[in-house]
């Protein structure tokens, strides 16, 4: 199995989740500007959408999109999925919220047409993070145990802080809790050029 990723991109969430799940995989770095993989391959041949992540399964099938890949990982590692009534639906609900209401806003932060657009996006991100903060009742997003949704939220929190967006309580403690996990430490070390 191969995970196509770009260091610091949203594919960090899959990187963390795969490590957390203990699933064996090969990391393939993608240069998003040139659309080339680290071995010189045209990334558009892997994912015609041209962005990360992409997960090529052992049977040759390719999955793209954070929500789909994270759901697939949770299906393979049930301890990364919440339990209880409506648990799977609640996880998908949160993954979709993170994807559409937080992640999508960062396009206007990273590639703004002007400062007013960037500031409006940061304000919207702050509102969405406040919504999550108000509902965070356990150590993790969907209760007392980490799920794949936490890997995705963690990446969004990193981006928010990097762009000067204050994290409302208890999200700073939550982010620190995530950073103590070996999967997060390992993924960050690998993506920054350190050990895997």
Characterise this structure:
The chain is an alpha+beta fold and 196 residues long. 49% of the residues lie in helices and 9% in strands. It is built from eight helices and five strands; from the N terminus they run βαββββααααααα. It has a five-stranded mixed beta sheet with strand order 3-2-1-4-5, covered by helices on one side. α1 crosses α8 and α3 runs parallel beside α6. 32% of the residues are buried.
Extended strand count: 5
* Mean pLDDT value: 96
Give the termini distance in whole angstroms: 16 Å
Largest sheet: 5 strands, mixed
- Order of SSEs: EHEEEEHHHHHHH
Share in helix = 40-55%
How would you classify the helix and strand content by structural class? alpha+beta
Number of helices: 8
Shape: globular
Rg estimate, integer Å: 16 Å
- The portion of residues forming beta strands comes to 5-15%
Query: How do the strands line up in the largest sheet?
Result: 3-2-1-4-5
Low-confidence stretches: none
Oligomer: single chain
């Amino acid at each position: 199995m191969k995970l196509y990723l770009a260091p610091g991109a949203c594919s960090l969430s899959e990187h963390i989740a795969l490590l957390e799940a203990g699933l064996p995989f090969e990391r393939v770095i993608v240069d998003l500007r040139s659309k080339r993989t680290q071995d010189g391959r045209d990334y558009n041949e892997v994912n015609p959408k041209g962005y990360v992540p992409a997960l090529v399964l052992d049977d040759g099938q390719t999955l793209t999109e954070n929500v789909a890949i994270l759901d697939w990982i949770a299906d393979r590692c049930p301890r990364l999925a919440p339990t209880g009534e409506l648990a799977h639906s609640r996880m998908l609900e949160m993954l979709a919220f993170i994807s559409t209401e937080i992640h999508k806003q960062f396009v206007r932060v990273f590639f703004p047409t002007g400062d007013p657009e960037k500031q409006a996006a940061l304000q919207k991100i702050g509102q969405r993070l406040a919504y999550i903060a108000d509902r965070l009742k356990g150590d993790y997003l969907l209760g007392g145990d980490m799920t794949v949704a936490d890997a995705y939220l963690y990446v969004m929190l990193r981006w928010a802080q990097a762009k000067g967006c204050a994290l409302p309580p208890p999200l700073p403690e939550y982010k620190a809790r995530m950073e103590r996990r070996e999967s997060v430490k390992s993924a960050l070390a690998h993506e920054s050029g350190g050990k895997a």
